Every structure is written in C-alpha cells, then in structure tokens.
Amino acid sequence: MMEEQIMTEKNVVVRHSAIEIAEHWIIALSGLVLLFTGFGEFPMYKRYMVTQIPGLGWTGDFWIHLKIHYLAAIVFTGAVVFHIIHHSILGHRGLMPRKGDGTASLKTILSFIGIGEEPKADKYLPEQRLAYAFIGIVSLILIITGLLKVIKNIPIVYLPPSIISWSTLIHTFATFLFLFGFLSHIAALLLKVNWPLVKPIFTGMVDLDYVRRRHTIWYEELLKAHPPVEDKTEDQTPVETVTEAASSSETEILPEIPSRPEEVETPSEPTDK
Predict the structure, then answer these.
(1) Is the pTM above the cut of 0.85?
(2) Cβ neighbour number for residue 98 with a 10 Å cutoff
C-alpha cells in the first residue's frame, strides 16, 4: 500500500491508497444500486415506462428489486463497517469535520465568483469534510433503519407498530438525503476548479502543481514528513553496486598476504636416512 508522498519525477502526489479507492467505489456503486432498487419498490418504473427500455423489463418486478436491494445492502454495510474500523485503527482523521469548516466553505464558494480569496487547504477541502460527515451520518441512519425493516420480517421477532412505522418513514427520508448528497458530490466535481480531484478517484495520484497551489497546508506537511521521492531510471547504477564491484575487483587482483611472518611456510630440509 503506497503512502502519501511527493513524486517529483512524475509531478504527482500519492493521495489515495488502493484500499481507499476500493472503499470509495464499493460504497458508491452499492449505494447507487440501493437507490435504484429502493425506488423500484414503489410502483413508479412501470408508471414512467422505465420497463419499456430494452434490458430493463425486470424493473417492474417488486421481488427482484427486493432481492437485489438486500444484496446491495449487505455489500454497502460491509464496506461502511470496514471503512470505520480500518481508518480508526490507522488513526486517519483527515476527513473529520473541524472547527471553522463552515466559514471556510463559505469563503471558498465566494472565491469562485471573485469575492475574496480561497483559504489555504489541507489534504481535504473544508466542504469535503462537511460532505463526508453528512453522507456518513445519513448512511448510518439508512443502515440502522434498514436493519429494523429486515428484523421485523423475522417470525420470532416482534417490533411495536410505532417502531416499524418510524423506521420506514426515517429510512425513506434518509434515502432522499442520500440522493441529495450524491448529486451534490457530482455537482462539485463538475466545477472546473475541482477537476484535478477526479483523477485521484481512479489512480490515487493528484497533480503536484495543483497540490502546491490549493492544498498548501497538506503540501508543507508532506515536505516535512516525506521528502520528495525521485524515480530511478534503469540507466542509473546504484552507488552500492559500483562500490561492491570495485571491492570485488580489488579482492580478485590483490593476492592474499599473510599477516604475520611466522605464518609463512618455509620449505622443510631434507633428512638423511
């Protein structure tokens, strides 16, 4: 797993590890499936003729939607739980909201229309930290209320009607909030100033010039913690190899010299018999 570091030879900074990229896409894709199948449990796809689209005839079947919804929920819940445990163990706090993020986000938005300057940013922008908290809380609400909706179907379990009604209502409301968060996330990436943040979602690498310009705080921290790493080309010969080769050559050329005179063997004199 590659750590955050500056790679001057490629003019990039390692922003996300392979695990973080996988987490992002598993949660995002399973979340989209949950949205699609969740709305599909309402009688709306037939009404709006989605079932008439080639390959989507199955979208009018409630039970197919329910099964896919459950499978996607298992994947989504597992990814969220892994995300929480994994980053808690590693002590990652970069996406946690900080004091002043609201004010900094407002200044950032105003800077887009020429009012004031954008504040210096850390690895994550203040609006990214706020969005993370929003999506995180909504996701946990969806998971908890979704589990209650599943548990109520178990024959040996009894839940009061009020709990069932409230969990269904909250789950539906949270679904619309999740959809709003998803659309806001896409809208933010459509802004030209945020385009450099699209590539790291796929490759984990972000342009070094962009980091210097916008994520100044993070860039300065990286310089202190991890000095720039320059890629070695194949034409370069490591210094250690040259030294070892020189040493081995000297060893082959120079004969072995005894350390003490006594150790030199003298020819034995012939003995008369």
Answers:
(1) no
(2) 14
Largest CA distance in the chain: 125
DSSP for 69-103, written as a single string: HHHHHHHHHHHHHHHHHHHHHHT--TTS--TTHHH
Residue 41 pLDDT: 85
Locate the domains of the chain by residue range: 18-92
The confidence score (pLDDT) of residue 155 equals 87
Rounded to an integer, the average pLDDT of 96-111 is 93
CA–CA dist 266, 131 (Å, integer):
88
Contacts of 4 (CB under 8 A, 6+ apart): 13, 14, 15, 123, 222, 226
Task: Tell me which residue of 94, 95, 86 sits closest to 26, measured CA to CA.
Answer: 86
Q: Which of 97-101, 224-228, 266-270 has the highest average model confidence (pLDDT)?
A: 97-101
